[in-house]
Batch of 4 targets.
Target 1
Amino acid sequence: MTTPADHAWDGQLELGDRWATWRGSVGDSVAHRHLAAQIAVADTPIGVRDAAGRRHEARVVLIDPLVQHRFESHRGARMIFVEAIAPGLDARRALADLGPVPDDAVVLASTDPRLRTWRSPAQIPSSDLPEALKRSLARVERQLAEGPVPLVLAAKAAGLSPERYRHVFVQSLGLPFRRYLLWRRVQRAFAAMTAGAGVTTAAHAAGFADAAHFARTLKAMFGVTATQIMRPGA
């Protein structure tokens, strides 16, 4: 096994519609988990530690959503983050672009089968999201730009009681409504910063109470701070 050297976060973050790519050196982080499926690709093996602290290394690492992990510092890698919750098309496209996954790739797998299907296209259910949930998610996206998104509002858009909506949401997407909202707010904040906004402005634009709330959420989801990966002028 190689011994990791110390590197700072230095590279380019590119954001798309529910996906992101980091190209450059990988710096220090803390153990974290997020709703994106993650693919890490490097020319030389990159080290990653799982939830139990066990160390793995490979040139290709696949991580299922909500699986705790921590990458070690590396001089250069490509990190791809894609939403893998239903229907998971973007995740499959990212895998297809990489070509065949090598046999020695490291996979940090979820215990929830719904969060593993992005790695096996044949296993992805053919059924789409319920129409009621589609309407609700569209309403949620509009409301995110305006402020708080109470569960009762989302449930009303779906034509369901809050209790029933909470159940349908978890059953369909594999995660709680509140965690989904935080994930979408982080994406919005990153988009704002990429467009030139400061951390505080981006946090407020995404609906966080303040920059500190955004910082705590970002640290829990990605193990880093905004200033570590968003360079001035980048």
Target 2
Amino acid sequence: SLQIISCSSLSDSISLLSVDPNDITPTHLIGHSIDILLAEPFFVSMTLPWHSLYFWYVRTALDPLLSTDCAITPGSAHLMGIAVKFENLHLLKHSLGKVEEFYLTPYDDAVMESIPDINKSLPPEDYSLWEYPSYPLSGVQTLMKFDFTSPVPKDTILREKGSWSLTTPTSCHGIVLWMEYSTGWTPVLLDEPIFGHKLNWSSNQNQGVCFFVKEDYEGEGSVGVAYDISMNTGTGDLGMEFELIF
């Protein structure tokens, strides 16, 4: 950054602050307000896509220093989801039985005992889905929106509930989740889904996956998915539950 500023002859106009955003004070700004807040919501500590919502909390900490017409980019984020069928990834939650003449019964028992006997989804897990072939069973859904132009509401539960239909009654293995940001340009995290064709995921970001244990019920395919998503703004925790509709 220093080299770019120097080569652009902007050393007298631009100053870099080597402090965490949460630690910026009016003294650092020499009496000025922040007119533009520009960031890429990516943090090394991220494991699931929505952990990048930490940006919203950083923006909130800076709120007293922002001008009344401060331009904030990204101005919002959306939690997106799509129902999928995997070629192999869902088998991680299935019994192995006998492999290479070895009986893996103890492992199978431990896995199955940890899985509830319900039609609801398991907690989300982190995967790089460009490595695991999957097929779309629905269109892309917007599940929750986050408005960064306003501070994080204090000690509030944000909640969204709804449902969407699958393209045809079938066995649904899980819901894939990712975040999209309003930045004026849209990075392609997922090419337009084409039913019957493999999904083409970006290799630059991981996705969250909520697996279904019961993929069908008495041989009938599921026809839709219901969702219940909540965010505790006091802790920043995002809770989610998906349930197959038969």
Target 3
Amino acid sequence: YQVRGGSLTPGTLVINEILADNTTTASDEAGEYDDWFELYNGGTEAIDLSGYYLTDDETNPTKWEVPDGVTITPDGYLIFWADEDEEQGLTHTNFKLSKGGEVLMLTDNEGTTVDSVVFGAQTTDMGYARVPNGTGDFVIQSATFNASNSPTGVGGQTIEAESVRVYPNPVNSILTIEVPESMIGQDLQIYNSTGQCILKQAAGRQQQIDFSQRPAGFWLIRVGNHAYRVLSTR
């Protein structure tokens, strides 16, 4: 059994993740690193997307029609490539995404808006994803292509990867970031949940960042090409 447009429970089918500046995260069938976005079906039945519409232009909601035969499984994910290469397959749209920010909108085959997302300037190779998966607000984090956006590195853990240590996590006052000697001098950047870079400096061996006056929520710490997500609970 498959659900068609008009009978969906609101929130069942959502735009779950966007990557508008893809250079290394995932490639399509042609080996090209194109823009992509992910839909998530949080329901218990498959959804037939035939005749649905996707667009990056609010004034043209029927810009691209999903071809016949495209479905999304229950508790499943579906990737669309925003690459203007429709000849490459059923999930390749006739528009691209702007890394400078724009809108992405999904409309069903009865003309009802199923979901829409307005996003700002994006970070290269970083996903803009709903956290918690399928239901939460959008945050910038490491891309989770065709998979859950569930939080990682939270709940009393120290993030430790590539010899970078970020702790404590969650944080409510001082966050310590330690980097190996090989990464000293690389860019250290901190982004809030809207993708705004609020701090950029050269990484030292150890730095302490005061989070006591910063809003609660997820923050992205980026050191060179490595990214780590931290939860502020002040």
Target 4
Amino acid sequence: MDINAIMIIDKIEKQKNKNIYHLYAENAILMTLTEDTIVKFNIYGGKEISQNQLDEIHDYDQTIQCVHQAYRFLSRRAHLVKEIERKLYKKSYSKTTINKAVAILKEKGYLYDEDFITMYIREEINIKRSGPLLIRKKLMEKGASREQVDKQIEQLYDEEKQKYNAGKLLIKKQMNKTTVTRTEIQKLQRFLLSKGYGWDVIHFCLDKYTIE
């Protein structure tokens, strides 16, 4: 189609219970747009519009819809940039649209990986008592880089705190027993490994037990 070809918007029809509008031209639905787009481009019934303008309007509207979808994800909890990108891609938005939406979200302060990583690590340390290896694994699965994660873990989770948390987990597990069997020691080793602790911390915490 000629990008300079002109068509006339027959009418704009709002959809029930949504800020979504159908645009009609030549007695057929031309496209569906958000209210933000209608206002920005001053679209109204009887307006003349070119194909080039329609393409611009469509690109803008896709970005706005993508941003609104991201807001819905973020209203439930904070996300890493990579998490948001993956979720938006699953909603069938193009990479170009997602990049534009993410840029808007960053500019508005809704996406900041360092803050998310700090908050996540503190929650894992103070609430779940997870070890550093498990924390790193979880964050990297969400899309954080190892460098980002290791830097924050080093700042927030020293070895003494790791020993304290691992010890608390053992107390809960063993109810302050001091004598255990070799099989029980092996189970406790596997337990602390599954919680993300390294061997130095595990050996330190298990040294207090006497093996029967």
